[in-house]
Inverse folding.
């Protein structure tokens, strides 16, 4: 999953970026509203962490501009604890959730996980496809109750597909949402990871849709 952090405080921006990166997300960051608006308007983010008090362009204006341009990614706003009006403005502008400063990083991580699940139609912490269960909080994958060991890249790919069960996901989309800008987009890395995941799961849930990409679906025996 690819996220954007827009926060002008260098230390807080660094802490948020580090925590989200450690949690397995690909994270871009901006330090003012103009840069944040440009990135959010031009890149395919799965969610955004957006501070309200930004230089050059305030967070509310950034969010309103995104929504006017039909940018629908979930947005978690950061507000001052004693500024309830910021929360109201944020929700009215199109925010999906908020965290009041100061906050615990674990709370931000939990809210991001919830926003990502809801944005793709999942309400529970566990994503299920046939005998495969992926726990978005613990990052544990099991098949018929047996734990499966995946690398971070393999987990992130499976996680994205399970968030989008039943929809064809192109190779380009996977690259854009799972890897940094310097990733070699002409390599066959995606195909290699898919092959490894299939071998480890030993369950036929990842279908190749020729010429289009991949789709996660119930295995034939569970259909």
């Amino acid at each position: 999953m690819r996220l954007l952090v827009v926060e002008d405080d260098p230390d807080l921006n660094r802490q948020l970026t580090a925590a989200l990166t450690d949690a397995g997300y690909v994270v871009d960051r901006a330090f003012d509203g103009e840069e944040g608006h440009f990135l959010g308007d031009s890149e395919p983010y799965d969610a955004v962490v957006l501070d309200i008090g930004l230089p050059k362009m305030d967070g509310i204006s950034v969010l309103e501009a995104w929504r006017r341009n039909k940018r629908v990614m979930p947005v978690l706003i950061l507000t001052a604890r004693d500024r309830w009006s910021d929360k109201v403005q944020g929700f009215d502008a199109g925010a999906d959730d908020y965290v009041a400063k100061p906050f615990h990083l674990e709370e931000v991580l939990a809210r991001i996980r919830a926003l990502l699940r809801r944005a793709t139609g999942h309400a529970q912490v566990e994503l299920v496809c046939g005998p495969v269960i992926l726990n978005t909080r613990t990052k544990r994958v099991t098949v018929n109750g047996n734990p499966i060991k995946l690398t971070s890249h393999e987990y992130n790919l499976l996680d994205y597909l399970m968030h989008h069960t039943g929809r064809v996901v192109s190779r380009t989309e996977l690259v854009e949402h799972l890897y940094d800008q310097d990733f070699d987009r002409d390599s066959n890395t995606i195909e290699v990871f898919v092959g490894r995941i299939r071998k480890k799961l030993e369950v036929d849930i990842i279908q190749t849709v020729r010429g289009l990409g991949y789709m996660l679906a119930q295995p034939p025996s569970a259909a």
